[in-house]
Every structure is written in C-alpha cells, then in structure tokens.
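Z., the sequence and structure:
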Amino acid sequence: MDNIPRQPPARSVFNGMVGVGALLVFDGKGGVTRHEPSATAPAVPLRGFKLIVGNSKSPEFKVWLREELGAFNADLLTAPSTRARCTVMEDKALVMLRVARPGAAPDDVGRQLLTLWIEKGRVIIATELNILDFLGLPRWEQSHHAPVSPADLVARLGLRAADRLEPLIEMLGDGLDEIEEALILKNHTKAQDNLEHLRRTLINFRRLVWPQRDVLNTLEIEDLSFFTAKDRLRLREASARSARMGDELQALSERAVLVHEQMIDDRAEQMNRIMLVLAAVTVVFMPLTLITGALGMNVSGIPFADHDSAFWLVSLGLVGLAFGIIWWMRGRHWL
C-alpha cells in the first residue's frame, strides 16, 4: 500500500502547483479566463495579457520554461534567492519578491520566493506559493475586477504581500507595548530578553520590506514600452504602501532603542541608589569603628576600663553618634 503513488490535491492541480502550471488570459478590462496549458495557445486581446503560473520545483514546468525562455533565463526564474530585486533586460523585466507564508508568526515569517518574468503581453510566475489563491482569483472571476495590465498585476502582488505583513508588524508593536509595561512594573529581566528578541525580529522585517519597496520603485522608473502612465501610478501606490510599512518598522526600531536606553538609565539609577546606601553606611560606621578600635587597644590607661557600666555607656554614645551622623546627612539632603 505504501508504494502506491499519492495523487496531488485537486486544488494544487487547479492552481498550477503540479505539472506544467496554469494559464490565465486577462482581457485588459477586468475580465479573466482560465485555459488548459496543454491546449492550443489562446488568443490574447489587444489590450490584454496572459499569465502563466507554475511551481518552481516542478520538473514539467522547468522543461517548459527552458523551451520558452532558454536555459539561462529559465534558471534565473527557478534559482533560489534571498533578497527581492528587479532586473531589466531590453524590454523585459525579471522581478523577485519575497512573501510571508500564511499563518506566519513575527519571529518565524517563513518567506516564500516569488519570481516574475514580465514582457509585453505575457507574465510568467515561478513560485512554490499558491499564487492564484494568494491573489484571490475567485473574487476576480466573480467581480470582473482582475488586473488590466502586467504592471497592475505586479502592484497587486505587492499589495497582497503587504497585507500579510501588516498584522505581523502590529503584533511587533503590541510586543513592544508589553515590554514597556514590564519596565513600568520593574520586571527588567523579562523585558531585557524580550527586547533583544524583538530587535532581531525588526531587523529581519526591514530586510524583507525595504528591498520590496526598491523593486517596485525600480520597475516604475524603468523605460518599459508597454507600461502606461496609469501602470506607473499603480506601481507607485504599491511602493508607497511598502514605504509606509518601512517607516513604521523604523519607528518601532527607534522606540526599541529608547526602551533600551530607558533600561540602561533604570539600571544606572538602581546602581546609584545602591552605591548611595553603601556610602552612607560607610560614613556612619567609620567614626564608630575608629572609636571602638581606640577603646579596644590592649594598653593601660584606657578611659572607663575599670567602670562596671562602661560598655553600656560607650554603646549608648555610639548609637547617639550614629543617629547624629544620619541626621546631619539628611539635613544636607544626602539621604
């Protein structure tokens, strides 16, 4: 029974995650039609474009990429990458985006690579992400509100990626609020550990958000012949969304620095209070130690040496002297 090959989920097959991928044709007016990739190549409307989506790990899809784009460009689409970037070659663009996986936590984003080949009338996406569900294909089909151009598609991808990140950034802000509350409650040990973890997470998020913004900015300013003024405006909007998230991350980083400085100040203040107590004890007991040391010398002629109540008299005198020193120090506002 274990040797029987398992059939892939129907949803994965439908969305192009298995085999040669999925083929969609956009009419440029908000409509979208799905076609079988193995069928005859469908006609693309004059103002429309077609989208081919496939799994970057699928052997069938890799073979198709090599036939369509050549070995070099196919390898660029399927090779793993750690950063988002945009490369323009003649009148074509290679765009790499990184998207947080579904249900990710702030400390475990699990970024997924999304690589696009953009040219006039055609967009190819190679990714392990279920891109059609990610973009919301069923809603497009029902509302007739699909992308009208390749740039519009890229802008929507950027916006959907931002949608996944925004709740995580809000969680980071809530975590920073909890750290500040722990500081107010003087729980410094817990606050210090949480703050270090939060600052590392913020660094990882900035590495994810800022390159995304640069990719959209680069694609907007590049001189691609099939990009219209409206396309560039859509890309600018998506870039601005990423920039706003970057600014929010920067603000959280600055708050984290201020919280860290507050921790240092609190510790310095605590140390100053401890040193003040130790100094006050030293000032009080130093003259007492001098007097008791002098009276304890093993020589003749010590005052009150033969008096029966000498110990108690000296003790009372020392206590009175100690209270006098404390009163004098409080009068000078040292305590």
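The chain has a mean pLDDT of 83. The first strand starts at residue 22 and ends at 26.

Let me know what you think.
H.
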